[in-house]
Specification:
The complex is a heterodimer of chains A (307) and B (105). Chain A has 307 residues and is of the alpha/beta class. In chain A, 24% of the residues lie in helices and 27% in strands. In chain A, a hairpin with a 5-residue loop joins strand 6 and strand 7. The longest helix of chain A has 21 residues. Chain B is α/β, with parallel strands linked by helices and 105 residues long. Chain B has a single domain, classed as Glutaredoxin. Chain B is globular, with a radius of gyration of 12 Å. The chains are: A alpha/beta (307), B alpha/beta (105). At the A-B interface, helix 2 and helix 4 of A face helix 2 and helix 4 of B.
């Protein structure tokens, strides 16, 4: 029987691992389908304390992993398929048909970028539709692309895409961005970026050709539609929590985020703790995820001591 | 060992190979590609002698990336007897990648 199993390998998961390992709980971390989490698809992280020059997202994640490994964290590079509650308050974690017994679980599965949810988007994924601007911007040299969204991620990705694309259109449903001032200014002052306000992408064109040829835009004010020629489609329209694996086990809010007792990482089930974006729809920062990962490890440690 | 495949060696290394080949199209500036790097390396060790595992740096080699319509990386193409038999995009768990390749061994 293990003391603690940590599910997820973003800033929350690795921070929980560092703390749990240093408390000699010999944590086991399941890295999941996306080792390193959302930060692996970003470029420069400029707001993580301790890196005055900024740090690359993937490098930051490699650093955190290394730090967790230094204190004897065991790592399994798989996803968790199922979690069961045992009689007596312990848990069974199932991954690839193998079962692991543990006294506590720290959930740190994070969130995943939302898609537009169009059939044409699915059909053209990897053929001009991309979920990762920093990975795929390169393939749009001197081409025109749209990015859908209005938050910080949309601004950052739009700016990044101008390194390659000749023109970047930001398509936004409203007449104002919710992005921070500094990020908005960077985008609005970029001569290669043009904003299409009050519009939504309702279709991606080019399914028959096997590559993106355009988008259908619908006005959110008068409902009119028009087609626009374009070579690539990116989106940054928010996130959904990865809570499928704990559905029915712990309480979720209406958006699917795991509910925790305010000011703690405790879920409704004693012995299960949650941290990071999985339980935070409000701040969703690398540093807040890391902070809550620390809380989860300390809460688990206390729970084990009192048990 | 993982093979470095270039536009010059692609024909011999991939298309003429006797064993199934997993090709990892990647670039040094792509975060998820860097995440997958060590995973692909481990796979190369584990399947040594049964399959060829190689990577193409699309920054330096764009001929076959273009030919196979690679517009999103990391992209993994599995080849058998010169044909693409399977394809995966983005960060993938090691087990998943291994299973998909082992089907063709």
């Amino acid at each position: 029987m293990r003391d603690v199993i940590i599910i997820g390998s973003g800033p929350a998961g690795w921070t929980a691992a560092i703390y749990a390992a240093r408390a000699e709980l010999k944590p086991l971390v399941f890295e999941g389908d996306e080792p390193g989490g959302q930060l692996t698809t970003t470029t420069d992280v400029e707001n993580y304390p301790g890196f005055p020059e900024g740090v690359l997202g993937p490098d930051l994640m490699a650093t955190l992993k290394k730090q967790a490994e230094r204190f004897n964290t065991e790592i399994v590079s798989e996803r968790v398929d199922e979690i069961r509650k045992n009689d007596g308050g312990s848990f069974t974690v199932v991954s690839k048909g193998e079962e692991y017994q543990t006294k506590t679980i720290i959930l740190a599965t994070g969130a995943t970028a939302k898609r537009l949810g169009l059939e044409s988007e699915k059909a053209l994924y990897g053929k001009g539709v991309s979920a990762c601007a920093t990975c795929d911007g390169f393939f749009f040299k001197d081409k025109e692309v749209v990015i859908v969204g209005g938050g910080d991620s949309a601004m950052e990705e739009a700016n990044f895409l101008t390194r390659f694309a000749s023109k970047v259109y930001i398509v936004h449903r409203r007449d104002a961005f919710r992005a921070s001032k500094i990020m908005q200014d960077r985008a609005l002052n970029n001569p290669k970026i043009e904003v299409i306000w009050n519009s939504a992408v309702t279709e991606i064109l080019g399914v028959e050709e096997g590559r993106v040829t355009g988008v259908r835009l619908k006005s959110t004010t008068d409902g009119s539609t028009r087609d626009m020629k374009i070579d690539g489609v990116f989106s940054a329209i928010g996130h959904v929590p990865n809570s499928d694996v704990v559905k029915g086990l712990v309480d979720l809010d209406e958006k699917g985020y795991v509910k925790t007792d305010p000011g703690t990482s405790k879920t409704g089930i004693p012995g299960i703790f949650a941290c990071g974006d999985l339980q935070d729809s409000r701040y969703r920062q690398a540093i807040t995820a890391a902070g809550s990962g620390c809380m989860a490890a300390l809460d688990a440690e206390r729970y084990l001591a009192e048990r | 060992m993982e093979k470095e495949i270039t536009d010059a060696t692609f024909e011999a290394d991939v298309l003429q190979a006797k064993q199934p080949v997993l090709v990892d199209f990647w670039a040094p500036w792509c975060g998820p590609c860097r995440t997958m790097g060590p995973i692909v390396e481990e796979l190369a060790e584990e399947l040594d002698g049964k399959a060829v595992v190689g990577k193409v740096n699309v920054d330096e080699n764009n001929r076959y990336a273009g030919q196979y319509g690679v517009m999103s990386i990391p992209m993994f193409l599995i080849f058998k007897d010169g044909d693409v038999v399977d394809q995966l995009t983005g960060v993938v768990a090691k087990g998943e990648l291994k299973e998909r390749l082992e089907k063709h061994i």
